[in-house]
UniProtKB/TrEMBL annotation:
Any one GO biological process: putrescine biosynthetic process from arginine, via agmatine
Xref: Gene3D superfamilies: Ureohydrolase domain
High-level lineage: Eukaryota, Fungi, Dikarya, Ascomycota, Saccharomycotina
Record Pfam families: Arginase
Protein name: Guanidinobutyrase
Signal peptide region: 1-18
Coiled-coil blocks: none
GO MF assignments: agmatinase activity; metal ion binding
Keywords attached to this entry: Hydrolase, Metal-binding, Signal
Family: Belongs to the arginase family. Agmatinase subfamily.
InterPro entries reported in the protein's UniProt record: Ureohydrolase, Ureohydrolase_dom_sf, Ureohydrolase_Mn_BS
Amino acid sequence: MKLALLQLLLTVAVSSSAHSINEKYHAYKDQSDISSLQADSPSLDDLWGSFWAYQGIQSFAHLPYQQCLQLDPSSSEPLPYDIAVIGVPFDTAVSYRPGTRFGPQGIRSASMRQDKWRGFNYRAGINPFDNWAEFMDCGDIPITPMDNTLALKQMQLAYKQLFKRKAKNSEVPRYLSLGGDHSILLPVLQGLYETYGEITVLHFDSHLDTWAPDKYPSFWSSNTSEFTHGSMLWLAHQHGLISQENNMHVGLRTRISGNGWDDFNEDNEVGFKRIFADELIDSEGLKGVVQKVLDILPKDKPIYISVDIDVLDPSAAPGTGTMEVGGMTSRELIYILRKLKGLNIVGADVVEVSPPFDIADITVTAGAQIAYELMTLMVEAGPVTKQFIESNKKVDTANVGEDLRLTALDRIIKSERDYQLDMMSI
């Protein structure tokens, strides 16, 4: 009995020493006495530099904030970050419910419980905010809601500028884009293509998003009307921005067109493999899905991860524009993401989060957590090296002239303007 008591006391003593209290900030110290504070000489940062989760400016996870598009693009100095969050508040290419222009704002608000102080990712064994990479919240791309031709141009130029310069500890920066509807993926892929060449896309979604524009049931059209949140991967393939094979969809469960398998045949032509939501409950389950992803995705190529929040079941993400029942739980999605360590992830997005349709912040909270997991994967991938870029880039983008892959969006814009001028002359 005495021995047990002695061991208990020893354990308490060791525990107390391991968690010794800093007397300077002792919770029970009388801090109403200003003279005692002055005697300890705390800095202004000691006194006023910390916030509770619900306080402070709403940058993502309380990250440093800078409007990065206003940094001088002609400067030869490295950017002050390696991984950045960029908001893309655009939702005028949707085919059903709008509202995702408020997605970046909503996800940032839900991320306020994240920060560097309590940022350790126990699944990965690292704190992504306290590792090799410098993080930044780069604010939003200012995008017009009035004119998709102009909006497309704004996004195109923004991503070209954002990818142009060297990062602080990496050859180029990585960006986590907060949508916005899923059409934002097209200008993202164009910016990535100019840096890396063709990109392999891992696409979490309940929908294919490889639909040709003529699959939309409307007589009326213009050149810009081809640009939608369901056609952007088809356009990316047409313009040579993505790999010709081994792109992947995960979580599919939508209805398809017509009275047969034509949509899947066209999806094959765009270069995608498919994993359906039902496969999550097959005999091999989640582990089988993860293995299938890892078997197909190349290990030596640049990978982009695009997460449409509607890949989750409406019970886990009601705040989105085109819900489909029978989807993943947030736990299942995070499990799959955590198993992707080792891939060369050069960028990612979380899109289609629509706060106007959200309930009790369920969707924005899921979006913020998914964004954190994606940033963890980017940190785990390490700095982007010059050798990796040169080994994958097959096109000299400085000398391609009118190459369709690099001028696709400019061509759309020019064609739309010509079309409008022709209509005015009728």
